[in-house]
Amino acid sequence: MGRRFLQMAGSKFQQGGFRDGIRDLLPWAPTVIAVGALLFMLLVTMVRLYPGKRPDDIALDPVPPLPPPPQTAVVEPSPIKTSFSYAVPPSPTTRPPYSRKPVSWSPSSPPPTHRPATTRPPAPTVTGRYGIVGTYDAEFIGEVAISNVTDVPRDWVVSLRFPDNVGDLRTSWVESAPQATLTRSGDSYVWHSGVPVNARSSVLLRFQFARTGTGDRPTTCTVNATRCG
């Protein structure tokens, strides 16, 4: 391209003179400048890449040969082993007999036993014993012996109740002691001591009742709420 451009420029200068040649070459100036700049940059790049060589001595490096294709190794399958061994469990007859030993347990202390607390009534301080002094056709005489089992004098209360065959009370008294106070509550007769009975001693409360038929035992006899003997 450069040689052709020079031939064209020479012919222009010969035909029309210097001014006409310059005028005709102006449209080509940008192209020439661009080509020159491109060649200059290419030259600079080659000098940087190959500092010890001239542009004419630069030669392309030979392309290394391609490596040979890898060879596929042929793997032969290993023969399958069909023989195997296993442990045979012992026969049930060869096992030792199973024995179960009893487990003994002895606590360090016996477990506490929870028993309901029993409350015993206090011993009676005054007791009574019922008896018959005499019996007749239509009446009888009975008594209650009142005993103080403690070491101090005690008051006493005697309560009597009889069945229907026993009628009204005729009379009552305390032998050799101040007389008691008699009250009646329904079918029950109640005597309250006039004076306490002395310690370790007894008194006799006697009474006479009318009666129809036979029978002279009371259905209820208590001394200080304790059943008579």
UniProtKB/TrEMBL annotation:
Record's keyword terms, sorted: Membrane, Transmembrane, Transmembrane helix
Keyword Transmembrane in annotation: yes
SUPFAM superfamilies for this protein: Carbohydrate-binding domain
Disordered, as annotated region: 85-125
Ranges annotated as biased composition (Low complexity): 96-107
TM regions (residue ranges): 28-50
Taxonomic superkingdom: Bacteria
Pro residues biased stretches: 108-124
Name this protein carries in UniProt: Cellulose binding domain-containing protein
